[in-house]
Design goal:
Layout (H helix, E strand, L loop, with lengths): L14 H6 L3 H23 L2 H18 L9 H19 L28 H9 L3 H12 L4 H8 L3 H28 L1
Helix pairs in contact: 2-3, 2-4, 2-6, 3-4, 5-8, 6-8, 7-8
Length: 190
């Protein structure tokens, strides 16, 4: 059920090279194409619009600073997404909102335990439900389901173990199911 990342945008040939040469119009085109995926990712990870706006600005500033470092062997969108994820997680860390301790309950997961419920297809409901989760849990869920990161990759990004990522995913999926079940029942009776 893994969706392609919303970042998976193909850029016109030569656009990145033009930006690397410092062409303002090339940067502007890259910004316009990636503004929404970066903002959405930041909003899902931080849970706050204002903070997501800051992450978007910081990500794009870093992009301007570092575009010279980009090497074309990997897709550009993957490289930019990495910057955005790091920026968002850094903000959570600054506010001490990522738990410092390892999560002890190592949940052995059945694959159906980590499938999102059908109501998750409703973006508004999903957004409301995700906002109720703890930051680390929400971040893991989004990186895993929406962005297709593996548990090892998430562990690396968050400075945790893969088992931390797995248990957050299991816990978050269960909680999200409960929240979405309640929400969709409320909506269906309305």
């Amino acid at each position: 059920m893994s969706h392609p990342s919303s970042f998976a945008i193909d850029l016109p040939t030569g656009l990145v090279q033009r930006a690397q040469r410092g062409e303002a119009s090339a940067f502007e085109q890259i910004y316009r194409r990636f503004e929404r995926p970066v903002f959405t990712l930041a909003l899902r990870l931080t849970g706050e619009r204002e903070e997501a706006q800051d992450v978007l600005q910081d990500t794009m500033l870093k992009l301007f600073d570092r575009i010279g470092e980009f090497r074309a062997e990997s897709p550009f969108w993957g490289w930019l997404r990495q910057i955005a994820v790091n920026e968002a997680l850094m903000r959570l860390r600054k506010r001490n909102r990522l738990p410092a301790t390892e999560d002890a309950d190592e949940a052995e997961l059945e694959s159906h335990d980590v499938m999102l419920p059908p109501a998750a297809a409703d973006a508004a409901l999903l957004g409301q439900a995700l906002a109720k989760l703890p930051d680390a849990t929400r971040s893991v869920l989004w990186l895993y389901h929406a962005e297709g990161y593996t548990h090892d990759e998430i562990a690396g990004l968050m400075g945790k173990t893969a088992s931390f990522s797995k248990s957050q995913l299991a816990r978050g999926t269960r909680r999200l199911r409960d929240l979405l079940r309640i929400d969709s029942e409320v909506h269906s009776h309305a």
